[in-house]
Each structure stands twice: as structure tokens, then as C-alpha cells.
Amino acid sequence: MQEVKKVITEVGTNEWQVVVFFLGDQSFAINVDKTREILRWPGCRVIPDSSAAMIGITSVRGEVLPMVDLRVFLKIKTKTELEQCKVIIAEFNEIKLGFVVDAVERIYRINSEDLDSTLTGKYLGDWVLYVIKRDARNVLLLDYEAIVQVISPQISMSQKWDAKGIHELTQDIGNLSAYRIIVAEDSPLIRAQVRDVLTAGGFSNLTICSDGKEAYDKIMKEGAHYDVLITDVEMPRLDGLALTRRLKENPVTRDLPIIVFSSIMAQDIKAKAASIGAKYQITKPEVSLLVEYVVKIIKEQKAKEERGAA
């Protein structure tokens, strides 16, 4: 067992760390904040009627975990036998599982600006979000949330909310189209699900951005006004914590309410987000809370305005 040791970085500096691993001859990466430990192959037991990539379950210190073979999922040919593989124990979206990989290299410290998304969705397929340019090679960062939702649809965020119940939350706050919500999220799948749940709640005045830099530029545009920002943490160019810090340090935007909505909302990440001014921190499976917290923010703002007018 190899524990993943993180280097503490200053909050909101746009820097984070990734574990680099191999599938065949290709290098891939996963955020350290999604990674708990790295194991030698522990063996596993087959799960009937499961996806081919869900190769079984294993027990790690008394905890039963599903095992996903990324080589099978991505259709990557390899000569490495399972007994020689490594397993990355990952935790995000309130689930814990093992990713089977050929080998693990090391942890690298990167900047969000190192993530290249120019080929995303065009030539890299559905599961690669970014290319990290490191040394003379290209390291691919995968959309792990989307991969897990495809392998196990029962954990999909779309099944975590009730449209009727969400709509009821917004009954007494007036004209919903008057409220402008801006969203910064890099995963196409999650962007669609966030749009769906906000629309189900009755919010139609939405601005959806694919990274923090795009959101920042729109917020800072002369004459722009937004009532709420919803932001992911792990994004290219400008990550969610750096975006939050930048907005809160600017007198023009410091009062903008911010909800951090991420798959890696461990207690330390929540504390970091709160320390730089994020009003709420939500883990991605709790997608229905987005509408609840947006409504809370709107009601708090209305109450503040009424007190000011009194």
C-alpha cells in the first residue's frame, strides 16, 4: 500500500496536483484530491450482470469497493497481467472505488493553465477532458465522473433529484427569469445535468461556461450582473478556488454569492472554499441542493434589500 501524500498549496493559487499513471504506452492523470491510496493488485470477485469494465469487487481493510479496469473501458490493449497491475483507490461524488491501471509513476504539481482543451470533444473522444503538456509527452486527464456514471447509471446525478419537489422550492420568490445564474463547469455531462436541474426549478436565465476563465471574463464584462455563481473546483485556465478568490478580492464582485459544486468536496476542500468566501459547498451527487441553495441566496438578498429600504 502506498499512501498518496499531498503537498499543501496556498488556497486559490490555481495550482493543484495530479497522480500520473499508465494504460499501455499512454500517460494519464487523476487529481490527487480524488485519490486516497495506491495498491498492488489485491484480487477481486466478479459482479454478475455488470459492465465489462466493472471487473469485480475487492476488500480493502474491511471496506468492500468496486473495481473499474480503465484499460477495458477505454479499449486500450496492454500486456500487463492483472497480477502485476496497480489499483488507484479514488473517492469522489461520495463514492469510493478502485481504478485498475498498468503502473503509477508519481505525483506532479501543475497549474490550471497547463490544461489544454483545444482537442476536447473533437479528437480525444468522449472521456478525455484535457491534455497536460509535460516534458516531451502529453498526459491525458479523464472525465472520471462521466466514466463512473456510464459504468454505473444508478449513481447518475440525474437520478438524485425530483423535478416536482425542486419546482416547489421556487414557488414564492417571484419571477424566476429575472435571476441571472452563471455556471462554471468543465465536464459536458455535468454541465447538462446542472442545466437540467436549474431549469426544472424554473430558472431559465442561465449562462453556462466551460471553465473559470470564461466565467470570470463574463462576470467582469462592463454592465454584466449575476445573482449567483455556481463553480466547479477542477477546471482549466482558472480553477474554481482561484476564481472564487479573485472575485472576492475585487471590490466590484466581492458580494457575488458563490456556490462551489464539486466532486472533490472533502472537508479540507470545503474549508478552503469557505476560507476564501464561497457561501455554500456542495458535493456533486447532491445536485438537488443547487436549487435549494440558490433559493436561499435569493431570499437572503431580498431580505437584505428590504432591511436596507426600511
In short:
Helices cover 26% and strands 31% of the residues. It has 310 residues and is of the alpha/beta class. The chain folds into two domains: 2-154, OB fold (Dihydrolipoamide Acetyltransferase, E2P) (Beta Barrel), CATH 2.40.50; 156-309, Response regulator (Rossmann fold, 3-Layer(aba) Sandwich).
How many domain regions? 2
Give the strand order of the largest sheet, numbering strands 1, 2, ... along the chain. 1-4-7-8-6-5
Averaging pLDDT over every residue, what do you get? Answer: 86
Number of helices, counting only DSSP H or I runs of 4 residues or more:
8
CATH architecture of the largest domain: 3-Layer(aba) Sandwich
Uncertain spans, ≥5 residues at pLDDT below 50? none
Tell me what the structure shows.
With 310 residues, the protein is α/β, with parallel strands linked by helices. The protein folds into two domains: 2-154, OB fold (Dihydrolipoamide Acetyltransferase, E2P), CATH 2.40.50; 156-309, Rossmann fold. Helix content is 26%, strand content 31%. It has helices spanning 70-73, 144-151, 163-169, 188-200, 212-220, 240-248, 267-275, 289-309, and strands spanning 2-3, 15-23, 26-31, 35-40, 54-60, 63-69, 86-92, 95-101, 103-111, 115-116, 128-134, 137-142, 181-184, 206-209, 228-231, 258-262, 280-283. The strands form three sheets. A six-stranded mixed beta sheet has the order 1-4-7-8-6-5. Helix 7 (267-275) links the parallel strand 16 (258-262) and strand 17. Helix 5 runs parallel beside helix 6. It is globular and about 70 Å long. The protein starts with a strand and ends with a helix.
